Structures are given as C-alpha cells and as structure tokens.
Amino acid sequence: MSVDTASETGALPTSSPRVPRGATLRRLALAVGPVLIALVLAGLLLLALGVNPLAYYGFVVERGLLSPSGVQQTLTRMAPLLFIAAGLIVAFRAGIWNLGVDGQFLLGAVSAAASAPWLVTLMPVWLATIAVFALAMLVAMAWSLAPALLKAYQGVNEIITTLMMTFLGTSLANVLVKLVFLDPGTTVPQTRTLPVEDRLPRLFDTTISSGLLLGLVAIVAVHILMTRTSFGLKLRVVGANPRAAIHAGLPVPKLTIAVFALSAGLAGLAGAVDIVGVQGNVRADWNPAYGLTVIPMVFLARFNGFATIVYVMLLSILSIGGESAARRLGVPNHFTLVLVATVLIVLAIAEYLDHRFQQARRI
Length: 363
Fold this sequence. Notes:
single chain; mainly alpha; ABC transporter involved in vitamin B12 uptake, BtuC; 73% helix
C-alpha cells in the first residue's frame, strides 16, 4: 500500500489529485474481484462436498441479511470486529504486522469478564463499564509490550513475536478462566456472569448491542487520525520508509511502541465490548479467532475506515448466515473461515499480478 507523501512544511495536503478513471476501476476490481472469485471457488468446494452452493449462499443471505433477527445478530457481531479492524488499520498503515490481536482480544475479554461482575456492585454501571474498558485496554497493551520493544529497539520481526504472543495469550486466557477467575457456582469452567441488566444497553427496541455504535465511532476516529492528523502522517511515513523517517528526525522507536499500544488497546476493547455487550462471561477454550478473519477485510478495504465498515458487515453476514446454513445443510461450522482464507489467498495473488502488470507498463 502506498503512503501519502508529506509536504515540505510537514502539513497534511488539503486536497488530493484527481484519480484517473482507469486507476479507480483497477482499485475497484482489486477490492471486489477477490471476494467474487473466492465465492466461486468456495462454491466449487461445496459442490465437491455434495452441497448445493446456491442453497448455501441463499441460506447465508436469508439468515444474515433478510431475517429481522438475523440482521440484529449481524449488526451486533460487527461491534468487536470493528474495534479489531480499527486496531489493524493503525498497525498496517504504520507498516507493522500486529498478528497478535486474537491473544490481545482474549486477554481483554477475560479481564472484562473477571472484573465487570465485581465492579458493578461497587459503583454505578456506567462508571463500572468505563473502568472495565480501561482495564481491558491496559491488559492488551501490556501484552503487546514485548513485541513492541523487540521491534522498536532490536528490529525483531513482529510477525513472529506477535504470533507467539497470541499462542501464549490464548493459553493464558484459558488458564485464568479455569483456575483464577473460575465461577465456583457452575459446573462449566467459566467466569462469573455479568447480569443482563448491567450489560451495554440495546438500541431502541431491538437486540442490537450499543457496542455497534462504539465500534463505528472507533473506526471513524481511527480513519480521521490516520488521514487528517500529523500523528497519523508520521505513522504513514514510518510505514512507507522507516529509514527516511529516521533521517527526517522522527522518533521511530517511540512511534512503533505507540502503534503497538494503540492497536492492541483497540483489540482489548473489542474483547470488552463483546463480553459487556453480549456474552456476559468467558468460557474455557473460547476463541472466536476474530483477528485473523478481519485481516483480509482490512486489506480489501485498502485500510480505508469507511470501506472497512462495509467489509466487516460482509464478514458478519457470512459469519451469522454461515452458522445457519451449516446447520441446515450439514456443512462444517468453520466453512466461513475457509471462505475467508480463500479470499486472502485470492487477494494475495491479485496483488501480485497487479504489481507485475504495473511493472510491465513502466518498462
């Protein structure tokens, strides 16, 4: 991804040059094409499994988009996904691969699940909710500190360190649920349950969690931060050319740590919103793996916050609708992950072919 070039004064450009129509069509093809191709390839896989792909996709659309209850579940599912996407946008635009969001998400969720039932007995619900969100953010930020320091001061590849921290974070979250925060009143290994009346309020007369609004605010705020502020410009310069950023006098190590903290904090908030808004507790071995499924959506959106909202909604529809279709047609529950992985593979191939095409045109 290209990064806007700073002006000599260091200010953000007030206007952008007009994009040629051909370039717009190319970007549109790279954004929509991989999704359509992945749907076709996944349909062929369904045929190989003896399942009618049109019936499968029909059930997905019916449940995830056309059913009133399904739409409400789709919009509620979007809340944590939007927070994770916001964190990934910050990291990727700064040239940092934070692949540890699932571990950060789970630890934020466990922190929220363990503290929320206790805090609501000590203070007003609104204040307890703010405290829970802050705690989840701090825990996730702390978990990202080791990869951040290794990247900032030793140049260690963050792909390796963040993936390792995700595996450790997932295991630690399960240990905390089973041993430290275990609810003694249940036979199922889980944390104490936050009462429904103490969770985030619903929107209007629906079951949609107000966490959706928080997620929308978060991703729009991140979009503005990265495109309309000097801090965002600095991060984009670091992501485009770290050496040039050093020569320009930017504090690259400090900015690197700030990116990790902000990205991880948003992932921790995603976990807190999911628990305080919907789940109410965390069960042992629970891991929805939202992080790795959101990554292709962020790339398809070209790190644009508003476009990411559309792709996150698409992912949510596939997730909610896919669960229903799997039950009706006997398809494995994780087929949605297969579809998302196919999108990622096709996107990588499309980016490679487009890069080769652009190189050939310059010759």
